[in-house]
Amino acid sequence: MSITIALSKGRIYEETLPLLAAAGITVAEDPEKSRKLIFPTNQPDVRVVLVRASDVPVYVQYGGADLGVSGLDSLIEHGGQGLYQPLDLHIAQCRVSVAVRAGFDYEAAVQQGARLKIATKYTTIAREFFAQKGVHVDMVKLYGSMELAPLTGMADAIVDLVSTGSTLKANNLVEVERIMDISSRLVVNQAALKIKQAKLRPIIDAFAGAITQD
Ligand code: PRT
Ligand code: MG
Hints:
alpha/beta, 6-stranded mixed beta sheet, elongated, binds magnesium ion, cytoplasm, histidine biosynthesis, ATP_PRibTrfase_CS
């Protein structure tokens, strides 16, 4: 019975490497330098697959992978069905925020009960947030370069991930509200957890022991 671990390239892969190492797992080849999608590890029965960040919960839900590492943002947008979420790994940390063009009076627009046009990839998070605030919104779903939407007049505001804030600054946008803090979570296929218990438990425990709190 083999184990498949779903990760995404970039920061999640990089920041998961030390956790894998704690579980005695090392990836044989550097995925950042390869076009392959499946990577063997030093353990013959463990392999890593690389998918889009937002597809990690999908692969784990449907058993394409037994476990994976997913940002809370992707997890909320996915819905979390069929996923056991045992650990906050405290990696790939950032926040989801509302940002507007410099000079746009967001507070006044909210106070006046204006209907806001929001561009975002995170429609579930944004919808919930503005519903709680009692702000009426029209949602424009985008898949990237959200920063462009307010600059072109397509939206009043964006809901996006912010880490250092330099992307917003470079595009003359201002963060006006923080919606939630984000980190990555370990997600496990619920059926696999039962069937492959003996193999998965030691990996989960090793990850738990290797988490470094901020
Ligand atoms: O493939 P897909 O489009 O689904 O995901 P992705 O391309 O966003 O994946 P990736 O690898 O960029 O991000 C994976 C996960 O890392 C996200 O789901 C978050 O949980 C987490 N994370 C942490 C971030 C950031 N920090 C981050 N800064 N994801 C993206 N960003 C982007 C942000 O979208 C914005 O464009 O970086 C920019 C802002 O950064 P600053 O430092 O300029 O503020
Ligand atoms: Mg990205």
